[in-house]
Amino acid sequence: MIYRRANSQFYYAAFYVKDANGNLIKRAISTKTDDKEKALEIERDLKKATVQLAEKKRFDKFLITTAEKITAATIQSPGISLSLVWEKYSTDHTQKSRTERTQKSKRNAWDRFKKWLNENYSAVTTINDVSRDIAKEYIKTIQSKKAATFNNNKNSLSSIWQVLTIESGLKENVWRLFKAAEDDSERWRDLSLPEVKTLFAKTTVFWHVAVAAGFYTGLRFKDIVHLQKSTILKEYANITPFKTKRKGKDVEPYVHPFLRRILEEWLVNSDPTEDYVFPEQVKLYDTHDFSREFGKILDACEIYDTDAGPVGFPSLRHTFATVNDEIGTDRKVIQGVMGHGSAAMTSHYSHDKKSHKQLGNMPSLLTE
């Protein structure tokens, strides 16, 4: 197209072309003439020349890209030795920073896989030698583990492959071929109210309080063990669950009057300078098998796995949701207090007096 600017007697030729990257670029050039027909002729010549130049640049880029692909396909990469994989991955600075715990978890996953390789495929010496079939065979060896453990191992290896793809010349990330395992939490069955009452009646000391806390708050076991006095307010507790800590997502479970009474009884003889509600259990958390201990308690109470799913402490979290659903607590309230809803939803719940009353309708654990 051609046009005249307000302060000029000459026509300008204006048009769009694509650069080497495919982006549209506007061009406007003075034709140095006030003759419209002459200006149109100049505009056609300019456009033709510019388009030809753009096409040449795109073709040059195509040649370079093609040459790089051919080179990468024909030149065999030496790969990265298994003994150097962790060093190169852990010192890579192109990824976001990892916490010490995450780094340790990924290192353990790599060490387990490397040990398995040495025992079963001693001829494999580089990361490039790990084929789809080898990866598939290893996946089978960890499929019997808990979903969280399986996913952690698979995702850790996938992360290592992703980071080292360019340097090692890997053709694919073999770990992305496998689906994640379903969350174990979906398989736990909930407990009947009589079962919860039996648990509460037959447990003592720590487990007595923990069962009540799990039933009335829906908190996970780790969050209950690490409860702090300073987070337990008048009617609500303000807690950042370990599972959502990185996102900074809080939950505010309602402190049921029955639970408050149990907590107060527990804290009567507690150290006033200690903020943890269960300081001894916090010290033992990383070394003691609480799951096995609670399993023995379930056996003593004759509470067993059924076709509906296995039982464990997570069953109390499911029971919390089921009981509140049965007594008519708003689903949004349940989701908010369990950390399944949005932060806005949780905030809305914590100031809703109707929600307060609904959660207060949960039954007592005293046997009749």
Give an account of the 3D structure.
By secondary structure, this protein is mainly alpha-helical. It folds into 3 domains: 2-74; 82-182, DNA polymerase, domain 1; 187-359, Intergrase catalytic core (hpI Integrase, Chain A, Orthogonal Bundle), CATH 1.10.443. The protein is built from 15 helices and 3 strands. It has a 3-stranded antiparallel β-sheet, covered by helices on one side. Helix 6 packs antiparallel against helix 7 (205-217) and helix 13 (331-338) packs across helix 14.
CATH fold label of the largest domain? hpI Integrase, Chain A
* Strand residue percentage: under 5%
The overall number of domains is: 3
CATH architecture label of the largest domain: Orthogonal Bundle
Task: Spell out the CATH superfamily of the largest domain.
Answer: Intergrase catalytic core
Structural class assignment: mainly alpha
Strand sequence of the main sheet, in spatial order?
1-2-3
Unreliable runs, pLDDT <50, ≥5 residues?
342-356
Give the SSE layout.
Layout lengths: L1 E3 L6 E8 L5 E7 L5 H39 L7 H9 L9 H21 L11 H11 L4 H22 L24 H10 L2 H13 L3 H5 L31 H11 L11 H6 L5 H11 L13 H13 L4 H8 L4 H8 L2 H7 L9
Antiparallel strand pairs: 1-2, 2-3
In short:
By secondary structure, the chain is mainly alpha-helical. 53% of the residues lie in helices and 5% in strands.
From the structure above, extract its key features:
single chain; 368 residues; mainly alpha; hpI Integrase, Chain A; 15 helices; 5% strand; elongated
